[in-house]
Write a structure and sequence with these properties.
- The structure holds two protein chains of two kinds.
- Chain A has one domain (about 15-305): TIM Barrel (Alpha-Beta Barrel), CATH 3.20.20.70.
- Helices cover about 30% and strands about 20% of the residues of chain A.
- Chain A has helices at about 85-100, 115-125, 145-150, 150-165, 180-190, 230-240, 255-265, 275-280, 280-295, and strands at about 15, 20, 25, 50, 70, 75, 105-110, 130-135, 170-175, 195-200, 200-205, 205-210, 215, 220-225, 245-250, 270.
- In chain A, the strands form four sheets. Chain A has an eight-stranded parallel beta sheet. A four-stranded antiparallel beta sheet of chain A has the order 5-6-14-11, with no helix packed on it.
- In chain A, helix 2 runs parallel beside helix 4.
- The longest helix of chain A has 15 residues, at about 280-295.
- Chain B folds into two domains: about 5-100, Translation factors (Elongation Factor Tu (Ef-tu), domain 3, Beta Barrel); about 110-230, Rossmann fold, CATH 3.40.50.
- Chain B is about 15% helix and about 35% strand.
- Chain B has five helices and 15 strands.
- Chain B is globular, with a radius of gyration of 18 Å.
- The N and C termini of chain B lie far apart (about 40 Å).
- Classes of the chains: A alpha/beta, B alpha/beta.
- The interface of A and B includes residues 43 and 281 of A.
């Protein structure tokens, strides 16, 4: 039910360093499969970028079920990075994505530095991957992931190693489960990150009162959805003040208004995650909503909105 | 783009038994005919608390000239279904579907056995409707085993009696039909059916399916079960509704109940 829209004169294109996007609306890794899953619902060409499900060197089974639980204004997940592995991605999924005129960003995950590098190199060789997003923030796997992301030193190290081995733009995705996220952001920037995306899910849990057990087999999981948006906004705000590389805002974005809040704070782009589960057309609704906002406010360029935040707070009117 | 999300209008939403509701939703003609075993994701547009849509099996389907209607059977188990239960006729709901892979129909197998426990009647009811409508099997080829805790909680019997005459009702307390589990009733009859020539369709609580799987292990019944799992997206993206299955080599792997199922070959599923 696409409404035919008058051609917009608004510029929606944004730059994440070398990476140019048609618009700032990206998908968040792990919520958009490998793109295919949503191609019946939206025109993938219209997206700013597709960030695919986290890829590891070898296929991963993922965690035993139950893997998800709904919570107030959000959901917990402990999927455990189930994925088909980087080789199968290149052979089976990438050809489909190549048919589209859309930036494809591969989210990568490793248990060791060497694995991150191997996955990165394989993706660089494959045609059709435009950037890498290093996942150092998955809370649901025992090795790798968040253990790299929770210390400045290891976060910087994995960034530097991947940067040294690939010429693709590198985005580093940060975990919110740290004391000082701006310090981690600063460390990965110094290590060469081309952009920083945040936040991944917040570690959480949920208790089944009847059984007196956790709802998730993994006991803990990652919280996402509208419930985490204020935390994400606060962290994006802290990070944009600390780094000069482009920042991508993620966390509980359900509507165009939510996305605009991140952009106004200074995020150059946003990733839509859990909203895709609730509404497979969420990215398009958000994109159209941002365009509508610009048109209504007679703003001709999205870049004029980005970073237009005025810090003085506390007005009651 | 071939799939859409529909706004449906509730034409009826009544409590047919304690805590159990039947909701009828009118949908535009562009809503596809569901294959038995398929489901829809249902939610209230724009509502983010509860956040996720609810997966519900399609209980019944009819197509009119300019519109169609689905019926959904559900019990109130949490916040989401509580809200659904409170909706009155004329309310609008967002319907996404039909989704998933439904039951396989093997026309070469002449006998059909359907085994439903409790809410498990929902997809099997649409299947029965479909099998009768398609007239590919005589009514005499179909046998239904319908189980519930007690007489009051037997679901869908009225509709079933119009479609099928071999119906065995079982209740845990014996207040209606035979006393005992629906799987026990089937087991008593199992020798009546030639495995090579029979398809078994099942849906119900996990324990029921588990014991059925055990019973049918190692014989040649073509047995399919519709599974239930918590879901977020319903379209195979979130990987939340994982079910452990055996792959071709016999190793454990996870499949998605929403997109690879909800109907699985009973033999394929690993019950821990």
């Amino acid at each position: 039910m696409d409404t035919v829209k008058a051609k917009t004169s608004v510029n929606m294109a944004v730059k994440l360093g070398r990476l140019k996007l048609k618009n700032p609306v990206m998908t968040a890794s792990g919520t958009f499969g490998y793109g295919e899953e949503y191609s019946d619902y939206i025109d993938l060409n219209k997206l700013g970028a597709i960030v695919v499900k986290g890829l590891s060197l070898k296929p991963r089974l993922g965690n035993p079920p139950p893997r998800i639980m709904e919570t107030a204004g959000g959901m917990l997940n402990a999927i455990g990075l189930q994925n088909i592995g980087v080789d199968a991605f290149i052979d089976e999924k990438l050809p489909f994505l190549r048919k589209y005129d859309v930036k494809v960003i591969a989210n990568i995950y490793g248990e060791t530095y060497a694995e991150y590098i191997k996955v990165a190199k394989k993706l660089e060789m494959a045609k059709g991957v435009h950037a890498l997003e290093i996942n150092i923030s998955c809370p649901n796997v025992k090795k790798g992931g968040v253990s790299f992301g929770s210390e400045q030193k290891t976060a910087a190290q994995v960034t530097r190693k991947v940067k040294d081995e690939t010429s693709l733009p590198v985005i580093v995705k940060l975990t919110p489960n740290v004391t000082d996220i701006a310090a981690i952001a600063h460390a990965v920037e110094k290590a060469g990150a081309d952009a920083i995306s945040l936040i991944n899910t917040l570690a959480g849990m949920s208790v089944d009162l009847k059984k007196r057990r956790p709802h998730l087999k993994n006991v803990t999981g990652g919280l996402s959805g509208p419930a985490i948006k204020p935390v994400a906004l606060r962290m994006v705000w802290q990070v944009v003040q600390r780094v000069s590389v482009p920042v991508i805002g993620i966390g509980g974005i359900m509507t165009a208004e939510d996305a605009l809040e991140f952009l106004i704070l200074g995020a150059k782009a946003v990733q839509i995650g859990t909203a895709n589960f609730v509404n497979p057309r969420a990215t398009m609704d958000i994109l159209e909503g941002i365009q509508g906002y610009l048109e209504r406010n007679k703003i001709t360029d999205i870049n004029k909105v980005i970073g237009s935040f005025k810090e003085e707070g506390g007005f009651l009117c | 783009m071939t799939k859409d999300i529909f706004i449906g209008e509730i034409s009826n939403n009544e409590e047919i038994q304690e805590n159990c509701f039947l909701m009828k939703v009118a949908l535009p003609a562009s809503f596809c005919d569901p294959h038995p075993g398929q489901f829809v994701m249902i939610r209230i547009s724009g509502l983010y608390e509860p956040l996720l849509a609810r997966p519900l099996s399609i209980y019944s389907f009819s197509r009119g000239k300019d519109s169609c209607e689905i019926a959904l059977l559900y019990s109130v188990v949490g916040k989401g279904t509580q809200i659904l239960a409170g909706l009155i006729s004329g309310s609008q709901v967002e319907i996404h579907g039909p989704l998933g892979r439904g039951f396989e129909i093997d026309k070469l197998r002449q006998n059909i056995v359907l085994i439903a426990g409790g809410m498990g009647i929902a997809p099997l009811s649409l299947l029965t409707e479909h099998l009768c409508g398609q007239k590919c099997f005589p009514q005499s080829a179909m046998t239904f085993y319908l189980g519930a805790k007690t007489a009051k909680s037997v679901l869908g019997l009225d509709k079933l009696q119009k479609l099928c005459y071999n119906i065995n009702v079982c209740t845990d307390d014996g207040t209606l039909g035979e006393k005992g589990l629906v799987t026990q009733a089937f087991q008593k009859d199992i020798k009546k059916y030639s495995p090579e020539n029979t398809t078994v369709y099942a849906c119900g609580p996990k324990d029921m399916l588990k014991s059925l799987a055990k019973m049918l292990k190692g014989n040649k019944f073509f047995s399919q079960a519709s599974l239930e799992e918590r879901m977020a997206c319903g379209i195979g993206a979130c990987l939340g509704c994982a079910v452990a299955v055996r792959d071709n080599k016999g190793a454990l792997t996870y499949k998605r109940v929403c997109a690879d199922g909800p109907v699985f070959n009973l033999r394929e599923v690993l019950w821990e």
